[in-house]
Amino acid sequence: MGGVYALDFGAILLLADAMGALSPLLVDALPEIEPIVVAAYRRDADLP
After folding, report:
1. For residue 13, is it within any domain?
2. Which of 15, 35, 40, 47 has the fewest Cβ atoms surrounding its Cβ within 10 A?
3. Contact 17/38 with Cβ under 8 angstroms?
4. Is residue 1 included in any domain, yes or no?
């Protein structure tokens, strides 16, 4: 309960833009890598 279940794409894209790293590749890849990132956060949350 209260764990990570999705990424805030708006925040990620705003941060990337502020860092000068916003690109069409990031926009296209973000939905594909979201499940991997979320799974990694869940796995780390399960550790003692």
Report:
1. yes
2. 47
3. no
4. no
Do 5 and 38 meet the contact criterion of CB atoms below 8 Å apart? yes
Q: Is the pTM of this model over 0.90?
A: no
Nearest to 42 by CA among 8, 16, 5: 5
- 46, with CB counted inside 10 A (0-12, 13-18, 19+), is exposed
What is the residue-wise DSSP string for 16-48?
HHHTT---HHHHHHHHHHHHHHHHHHHHHHT--
Q: What tokens appear for 21 in the block?
A: 């790293």
| Residue range(s) defining the domain that contains residue 30 | 9-45
Overall domain count for the chain: 1
User: Region 31-41: what's the mean pLDDT?
Assistant: 93
Tokens 């990424």 appear where?
A: 7
